[in-house]
Design goal:
The chain has 493 residues and is an alpha/beta fold. The chain has 3 domains: 41-155, Glutaredoxin (3-Layer(aba) Sandwich); 159-348, Glutaredoxin (3-Layer(aba) Sandwich); 371-472, Glutaredoxin, CATH 3.40.30.10. It contains 16 helices and 22 strands. The chain has a 6-stranded mixed sheet with strand order 1-2-4-3-6-7, sandwiched between helices.
Length: 493
């Protein structure tokens, strides 16, 4: 497999440059150039390159996709961005993405600040293919997943070679959706081409027998992993095995809308529905991908993801794989060609509301200092106009969530006797909300007392002292004393 991969991977990495420059045989002889001292290797802090005037050029040569933050040590916005920036670097590194994050201390490097017209902090600029004269101004999100996604869309994904279970776990922990090609007997060039085209996907690739055994595979296949709550899948993952002949169509087509027919292929009455399902498909070519799911096969993971039980088949579900919004027909609806057509048109036309998953409300949800919220009681608690509600949206597998858990428990204990303050948490992998999506973890949001359904994103440090200051100040961190720096660029608003 390695012999097949090497030429393709070199192409995907975009190896460029002129080889063998200089005079050929018989050309003029030149004095050998003076030996240059070795270039200084830029240091890293939390996965982010720390650059200066001497090392920026080297970084541009080595990294064809480089996002550089110009910051000032005294800048409050820069300090707030720092942990998200480092987290974005970790996400991209775990995916072996072809993008690198770096930072430059603007006040300490005035020549670079002047060269790139930096007049406020933080300023972020994206350099492509070493082009130093026309960097792209970064105006994207300031949270980790948003930064990483912005870069993914510009450089495309890479297919990471997985050598062992540790490699696989690192890749699967990095994203909500990951596609892995398991190949031992097949040329993988086509799969890598799909990875290059499907800009919103993260891809892995392996031929290691121990990983085939780990995931219960006996033949070449493509597996889509999607994170779920702690109770589902292996290690918090749903696995959807895609036959090779259909996986290539799914990814190559780039069709975001999928209509799934759930049937039991062992029942004649269910198999008879396939003709009508196929009949309804042609008018939606290019718009909707029609998929058949056999509930009698090993597809429990798919049923769980849609909140279905096998006995509910035959039934339809519609999903947009970009927004992950899911739609269901009315209970008891027939599965005829006309019914399928009407359902598709209604969803595409906005006539059907998406449904959302929710765990059941625990009987003791409000008995602990940290209240337990699920989809079914979220609106009632979060938007209670008589309470200030501070909620941690977490994922059970998230290391950062586990790290801050003790501080969150301490916070709840500290304010347990404040009748107008509620400290709560919600597993955002098992509960979907109508008010807003949650894509990064932990996400901390504050819902202040009063009407208007106001939501404030918390961006401060994740410790008891800072949490308390935020609550005591009415959902706003106290302003820091400004540090006067003569001639310094102004802080970004």
């Amino acid at each position: 497999m390695d012999g097949q991969l090497l030429p393709v991977l070199l192409l995907l990495l975009g190896v460029s440059g002129l080889w063998g420059q200089g005079p050929g045989p018989g050309g003029p002889l030149e004095e050998p150039p003076e030996e240059k001292p070795p270039e200084e290797e830029p240091p890293e802090e939390d996965g982010v390159l720390v650059l200066n005037r001497q090392t920026l050029g080297q970084a541009l040569r080595e990294h064809p996709a480089l996002l550089v933050e110009f910051y000032a040590p005294w800048c409050g916005h820069c300090r707030a961005l720092a942990p998200e920036y480092s987290k974005a670097a970790a996400l991209l590194a775990a995916e072996s993405a072809r993008a690198m994050l770096a930072k430059v201390d603007g006040p300490a490097e005035p020549e670079l600040a002047e060269e790139f017209a930096v007049t406020e902090y933080p300023t972020l600029k994206f350099f492509r293919d070493g082009n130093r004269t026309h960097p792209e101004e970064y105006t994207g999100p300031r949270e980790a997943e948003g930064i990483a996604e912005w870069l993914r869309r510009r450089v495309g994904p890479s297919a990471r070679q997985l050598e062992d279970e540790e490699d696989a776990r690192a890749l699967l922990d990095a994203r909500d959706v990951v596609v892995v090609g398991f190949f031992q007997d097949r040329d993988v060039a086509t799969f890598l081409g799909l990875a290059q085209d499907a800009l919103d996907m993260t891809f892995g690739l392996t031929d290691r027998p121990q990983l085939f055994q780990k995931f219960g595979l006996t033949k070449d296949t493509v597996v889509l992993f999607k994170k779920v709550g702690a109770g589902g899948g292996r290690g918090g993952l749903h696995e959807l095995h895609l036959p090779l002949q259909t996986s290539s169509k799914i990814f190559a087509a780039r069709i975001l809308n999928h209509l799934l027919l759930f049937i039991n292929q062992t029942l004649d009455a269910h198999r008879e529905l396939l003709a009508g399902f196929r009949e309804a498909a042609p008018p939606f070519r290019g718009q909707v991908l029609f998929v058949v799911v056999d509930v009698g096969a090993d597809n429990d993971h798919v049923l769980q993801y849609f909140g279905l039980k096998a006995q509910e088949a035959p039934t339809l579900r519609f999903i947009n794989i970009e927004t992950t919004k899911k739609y269901a027909p009315e209970r008891g609806a027939s599965v005829t060609a006309a019914a399928v057509t009407d359902f598709c048109r209604a969803v595409l036309g906005g006539g059907v509301k998406p449904y959302r998953l929710s765990q059941e409300v625990p009987p003791d949800w409000d008995q602990r200092p940290v209240k337990t919220l699920v989809g079914k009681n979220f609106e009632q608690v979060a938007f209670d106009e008589t309470k200030n509600v501070f909620i941690k949206f977490y994922a059970p597998w998230c290391a950062h969530c586990k790290e801050m858990a003790p501080a969150w428990e301490e916070l709840a204990e500290t304010y347990r006797d404040h009748e107008d303050i509620i400290i709560a948490e919600l597993d955002a992998t098992a509960n979907e909300l109508e008010a807003f999506p949650v894509h990064s973890f932990p996400a901390l949001k504050y819902f202040p007392v009063g009407p208007g359904r106001k939501v404030i994103d918390y961006k401060g440090a994740r410790d008891l002292e800072t949490f308390s200051k935020f609550l005591d100040n009415g959902g706003e961190l106290p302003a820091e004393e400004p540090v006067e720096v003569p001639g310094a660029p102004r802080d970004e608003l």
